Amino acid sequence: MRLVSLTVLFALTATAGACVRVNVGSPRGTSAAITAGDLQTRLTAFAHDTTMGREAGTIWNERATDYVAAQFQRLGLQPAGENGTYFQTVPNIRPRDTTMIRGLARNVIAVIPGSDPALRGEYVSITAHNDHLGFTHRPVDHDSLRAFNAVIRPLGADSPPHAPSADETARIRVILDSLRKVHTPRLDSIYNGADDDGSGTVALIELAEAFMKGGAKPRRSILFVSHTGEEKGLRGSAWYTDHATVPIDSIVAEIDVDMIGRGSVSDIKAGGPTYLEVVGSRRLSKEFGDWFEAVNAKEPTPFVFDYEYDVPGHPEQYYCRADHYSYARYGIPSISLSRGAHRDYHQLTDEPQYIDYPDYARLTQMVFDGALYVANADHRPRLDAPKPTDPHVPCKQ
Asked: Hey, what's the torsion of the CAs at 381, 385, 387, 393, to 10 degrees?
């Protein structure tokens, strides 16, 4: 669907002007505990309009990686990038639009050394991607787009568009009328990517703070990798695993978090406070998947793992679409965690105001507990499948 068509469909009355700017929290100090408030504070900054959608290869994604690196440095994590820095440059990534200001495409890498001298040379990697889609030169009315997608594209870009029927048009109008009572028409042109994957990126920072300021002393080292270029075909994670800044075989497991800020019943039909999509956890190591199930079961409100999208041959190809695959292809037990697509997926409306912060905090805490469990285990997850002989063969769902 061309977004400009919405202007015709709904006779939008918004006039030209500034893009939507949403402020959902004021800056304040953060704590060692993983909290909804801390996540909201950080995500509001990271997915703000001023980051211009963070497209890989632009100056705005470069500035986003500056933010992540500055947070890691402030918290005291050791740089684990190139030449003693927090960065690893990923070559040959360019903006899709030649009018955009070019910048460096960079992964951000940091480490918390393990407490056990015998195991600190092994790593549990926690990853997310820092890039999104940038911005468009064709702004549309924010609320009209949300109303349209609520009916026609409930999974955002993963829902094929179609012209609304008379009944659908009426339903769209009811939703839009309710939104008009709250907001006047407001143009939007920035893909903020609050959930995709601002939520994962901010979770990395929150997890780093919890490890550094809390009482946990993981035996193995915790490796944080903020990838660029996921939206351009997993480019950043593929580059990192092909040119890892630690020995690739020393990474005992990888946990990828992508779109972990939503998942309510209003977002996805099967959604709710316990909904969680899990992909890849048992592909290489049944034990690794069992460990995460056991950790989750001990949470105050456990999530219900949905393995639907992990089924071999599933048409949505989630196993091949997330950064965890770049690690799995090297024989590293890997898990992709997501609370699912929604009407704002890859849309201009993916903004911090729509995040479910309490459940987002619960999931971030579960990731912390899972990473700590693996880091303290007396052995690395046992492989059930042979290690791939060629990491560059095409991915197979």
From this structure: -130
Give, for 185, the enclosing helix (H) or strand (E): none
HSE, CB side, 13 Å, CA atoms: give it for residue 179. 17
3-state secondary structure of 189: strand
d(CA 150, CA 368): 33
- Average the pLDDT over 363-382 and give the result: 98
Q: DSSP states of 35-97 as a string?
A: -HHHHHHHHHHHTSGGGTT-BTTBHHHHHHHHHHHHHHHHHTPEE-SGGGSSEEE--S---SS
Helical packing angle, 36-46 and 59-75, nearest 10°: 150
Helix (H) or strand (E) holding 136: strand 135-141
Residue 240's φ and ψ, nearest 5 degrees, are -65, -45
DSSP E strand stretches across 142-240: 187-190, 221-227
How many Å is the Cα radius of gyration of the chain? 21
Please state, in angstroms and rounded to a whole number, the distance separating the CA atoms of residues 104 and 123: 27
CA-based nearest residue to 207, from 298, 127, 309, 287: 127
- Name beta bridge partners: 56: none
pLDDT in tens, 262-314: 999 999 988 999 999 999 999 999 999 999 999 999 999 999 999 999 999 99
Return phi, psi of residue 245, to 5°: -90, 0
Show the domain range for 74: 32-134+193-376
* CA atoms of 212 and 275, how far apart (whole Å): 29
CATH of the domain at 72: 3.40.630.10
Question: Does residue 9 lie in a domain region?
Answer: no
Number of Cβ within a 10 Å radius of residue 98: 7
Q: Flag whether 110 is in a domain.
A: yes
Residues 203 and 103: their CA atoms lie apart, in Å, by: 24
* Residue recorded with tokens 């963070």: 54
SS3 223: strand
Q: How many CB atoms lie within 10 A of CB 48?
A: 18
What average pLDDT does this structure show over 199-212? Answer: 98
* Total count of domains within the chain: 1
